Every structure is written in C-alpha cells, then in structure tokens.
Amino acid sequence: MLLRFTVENLFCFAEETVFSMVATKDEQHPEHAQLLRDGYPHKALSIAALYGANAHGKTKLVKAISFARKLILEGRKPGQSIPVEPFRLDEEKRGQPSRCEFVIFHENVEYTYGFLATTKRIVEEWLFARPSDKEECYFERVTDTEGKTQVSLGIAFQGIKEDKFIEYVARGTRENQLFLTKAMDDNVSVVKPVYEWFSHILTVVSTDTEIQPIALRAIEANFVEFMSCFLRLADTGIDSIITEEENLDYERFFPDTNDAVRNDVENDLAKGMAIGILNSDGLAMAIRPSENGHMLVRLKTLHRDKHGVCVPFDIEEESAGTQRVMQILPILADLKASKGVFIIDELDRKLHPLLSRLFIETYLEMGKGQNCQLIFTTHETSLLNLDLLRRDEIWFVEKDRKGASQVYSLADFDFKPNSDVKLELGYLHGRFGGIPFIGDIRSLGWIDD
C-alpha cells in the first residue's frame, strides 16, 4: 500500500509536495480506510481522485512516480545521465537536486525509501523500515561531487552471512546508480521486499499505455468471461467476447517482421511465455506456445443482428470508449487475487460519465478488504460526490503565481456541503482551486465588441 509520496524540485513541483493516502478522521465511508496491522497508527485509503486544470500538474505527479519507479527497476548504464528535470522557473532550483520519497506498507512492514538526484549522480539515498513501533535504518547513501559513493549500512544488514559481500556491493555502486537497484541486481535479499513492491505491486498507467495487453489476457477463460459480463452491463452492445486460435504462420500474419524480432518472439515462446504483438494491420494478438506449435490468439467481440445471430468484430472496430474500458478491466478482474496499487492518468478518458462511475463503484465493491489502491487523475466532476468518495480521497492540483504546482485535498477545507451538487458546483466555481481561469475571448481579436 502507498501511504505517502513526496516530490520536490522535479518537473513543475518546486517545493516539497506531499500526496497522502493515509486516512484522516473523516467518518464517511469507513470501509474505504483499510486497517494495515494491529496496533499500527494509520489506515490506508483504497482510492483517490486528482482534479485540476490542464497543465497544472496532475499528469506531472503521475510522471514523477513513474520516473522514480523506472529509475529503480531499470537503473542507468555507466556514463548515462539521469532523466531528472528540476523546476525551471526558479534559477536557484535549476542547479539543485530533485527529490522523491515513498512511504509504503508492504508485507506487514512500513518502509520509507527515497533519493536526491541530479542528471549526473544520486546525491543521497535512504531506506528505513518500521517492522514494529521502532524505526530502523537499513541504509543511507551519499555520493560526493567527485562521484565517490559511501553507503552506511544499518541494523538490518548486521549479522547476515553476506555482510562482507554487501560492503563490496556498496563500494561498487556507480554515482548514477541507485544502491537499491545495485543491491537487487546482486541478489541482496534484505532489499527484496521494497524492490518487489515497485516491480510487482505498483503499476503506473499513462495516457498512451495499457495496464496489460488485452490480447495476452485472451488466453485466460475467466478473464474473457468477466470482460463479457462487464461489457454487457455497460451497455456497449457487445453480447460476449470470444477467442479464435490457429497455428501461427509468420509470413501470413507478420510479413514485415524482421528476423531479430522473430528470434526474440521464438526465444520467449521457448521459455513457455505468451507474448502480445501487433500484426501488419495493427491488430492486437497474442502468441502462446502449445504442444502443436505456436498458436495465434485473437479476441473478437460478438454483436447480435436483428435476427439474434451473433456477428463477430475485431476489437479494433469497437469504439474508442469501449476499447478504453477493456484496457482498464484487468484492474477489476484481478482484485480478488491482487494487492496492487494502480495509478492511472486520465482514467475517464473517452468514457461516458456514467461508465466512469460504474467502474469506480465496481472497484469499491469488489475491492473491499483487498488491500488494493486506485489513484487516478480526472476531469469528470460528476465523481465529486460524497456518496461515492470521502473528503480525504478528493485531491486538487493547482499552480501558483510562480508556476509551481501544489497538491491538497478536500479535507483541508472547512466545507460541509448540503448536497453533492453544491460540491461539484463549488469546484467548478473555483472554491477549491484546481480550475482554469478563462480569459475574455474578445481579447483574441476574432470577435467584434
């Protein structure tokens, strides 16, 4: 579970900015506040919606989390720069390091992990843990201006068999490399839970990516059935989803695929992996290994004609909104088996307001007690509804006069609406910020006075 994310001097965030998923004392929807451990002082929220005007920083907050995750999981090659972007509208900030810090709760332990980075080096890095009431230091790392890295190991590393090896790993950490990443690459088990939270629990979805290629999920009968049911419920006109399989013919379906790509595909299949791929017509497909060779799997939607006969369509023939629903459905389908943290930019993109609400309501119902989280940016004001969300689950992002973004929640306001219509209107009228202040269109000179 994500408890807090702090960002400073990165993208449009100049000063320390904190986004929190820790529940306040708000008494609404107590089922949204999840107990993490007996005696633990905090509860974690299961959902959060981020509102704000265009270009005010919603996407940049998602991008900051994605940047940190990618740096942790992929690392940097020797001599490669770190893609940090300090706040550019303040001359002093441009030369200062950027900061990211996560407070997470994973496997019954609270972890605090963060780093300071410039384009050249990781200036500082730290990991603390709170397995009980007392916080313990796992490591603290400092890299000087000459690129020399020093890592101070805490109590968690004392007395384990690999302690000398870990010291060697610490000395071998490059200035542009996170010690967390280096330690995981070298199989240092102590840091594994934190690394795996970023790799297996946290999923960040931008506007141009999918949570998981739908074609890959086509090989799972339970997922196909779930998707069929939801799409019927959402009144998309789809009766059901089916899969079609046939033996793979590379020359027929992928005539433009070069030998290198084909070799990569065959190597993955040889390992028993299924893969997603686009054919030359841009159609999403999956390839899976079988006893009879490689099988090509395609998803089809079925619509009924006026005689009640099912007619198949390619997924790509469905509306953009229907395809968007299918892209985000893995979140719902995996709730019972997953403890994922999903962060989605523009969840409501291409969706009807009622469909957005259906998705949120389904998530909240299916996710009860599952220790999962959904954090999303949106412009859909109909979700500003206290029958749906708590005050501490509604967040706003707004830029100040210096061009720096601020993040704050509805719980920061002394606001007790008589109705949710007033909450929505209050936002649109600027009571909570996070909206564009539109100028006079006549200033464009296109309209006569």
UniProtKB/TrEMBL annotation:
Molecular function via GO: ATP binding; ATP hydrolysis activity
A Pfam family that the UniProt record links to this protein: AAA_21
All residue ranges annotated as the ATPase AAA-type core domain in the record: 47-385
InterPro entries: ATPase_AAA_core (IPR003959), P-loop_NTPase (IPR027417)
The organism's place on the tree of life at top rank: Bacteria
Protein name: ATPase AAA-type core domain-containing protein
Source organism per UniProt: Candidatus Methylumidiphilus alinenensis
